[in-house]
Amino acid sequence: MDRTKGKECPQGCKDLNRTVKRAVSNFAPPEQMTVTEWSDKYRRMSPENSAEAGPWRTRRTPYLKEIMDAFTDPGIHRLVVAASSQVEIGRASCRERV
């Protein structure tokens, strides 16, 4: 039973409490995850820009894992990558992961 100052809480109060509780739950801190974990969970490849549309799979590009995770490593302050033009590591790709 909801109570306000020893009195029973009316229906409006219960609705307000439920609404506030739901709203406050949206302010939880973001998940702590690496770039590759985030990519595997949320990133989607478009059919216009990818040979394989659909969810991103880091296991398909294992050579990018260390590079991607370097973006969230607090001990790394500068990241330099040398790669061939065939490797999916262009400027746009790096920007979207940051």
Give structural notes:
The chain has 98 residues and is mainly α. 37% of the residues lie in helices and 8% in strands. The chain contains 4 helices and 4 strands, in the order E-E-H-H-E-E-H-H. The strands form 2 sheets. The protein has a two-stranded antiparallel ribbon. The protein has a two-stranded antiparallel ribbon with strand order 3-4.
- Inertia-based shape: elongated
Main β-sheet, spatial strand arrangement: 1-2
Helix count from the secondary structure assignment? 4
Strand content: 5-15%
Work out the helicity level. 25-40%
SSE run? EEHHEEHH
Give the strand tally: 4
Output the radius of gyration.
23 Å
What's the end-to-end separation, in Å? 47 Å
- Determine the structural class based on helices, strands and strand pairing: mainly alpha
> What value does the average pLDDT take?
80
Residue ranges: pLDDT <50 for 5 or more in a row?
Answer: none
Largest sheet: 2 strands, antiparallel
Task: Break the fold down into its secondary structure elements and pairings.
Blueprint: E1 3-4, E2 7-8, H1 11-25, H2 35-42, E3 44-45, E4 54-55, H3 65-70, H4 91-97
Short description:
This protein is mainly α and 98 residues long.
Keywords:
two-stranded antiparallel ribbon; 4 strands; 98 residues; 37% helix; mainly alpha
